[in-house]
# Entry
Amino acid sequence: MEKQNDTGFGSIENFLPEILAYPIFQGLKKEQVLELLLGGVTRSSKHREYLYRQGDPANFFSIVLRGAYKLTKPTPQGDDVILYFSCPGDAIGALVMAHPMGVYPVSVVAMGPSLVWQIPKKTYQQSWMTNASVTIRLQNLVFNRMSLLQGEKTRQKTPVAQKVAYVVLQLIEKYSTEGENILPVPVTRKEIADSIGSSVESVIRVMSEWSQAGLVRTNESHIEVLNTARIVEMLKQDL
# Structure
């Protein structure tokens, strides 16, 4: 059973200004959004803590408020592959709420201290499923994720450096603040490798070469791109 944390963050009113700006809620009135968030609670996660585990009964879904989460699924060999990185504004586990006996199709793991607004299945069935506009937006989110996955499949035969360039630029675009080229969430070399279907050793080699060439600066908590133009140029070589 999912754990609901007492985070001390207070009611949803504390987050409403940013929530109303999330693409999934844009254009909706405050009262409509509050109805969609009814019965929810804040739930915090420590670094590498599971929010949901694949195969567990899907009784809740979440809107990411802070930090980031990775969506993972095991391969036949027993390793985890990262399917998607979720950032603030993303909905996690929403569409499975339409199934009375649904289970989570993937595991969801926090990347650094993170926070969601966790909503019960009952609210989805009573408010989300009856709101055509929100349903379409959810479907668009899933479509965008599938498009990214399809794009990654087409890059499977490209050099590792270009795959790493794509992931790093994509993550910085999603998570960095405007005007900065810093990825503020802790992403390990293994997580990058898992997301591109490569070995950890290959990713370490690429990142080391970039660091020695002055293209990036890294530590345990973040990655900073020092020469964005060169990283972009690497990516373009595959187009």
In short: The CA atoms of residues 87 and 174 lie 7 Å apart. Residues 1-9 have pLDDT under 50 and may be disordered. The helical segments are 16-21, 30-36, 121-128, 132-154, 160-175, 189-196, 200-212, 228-236.
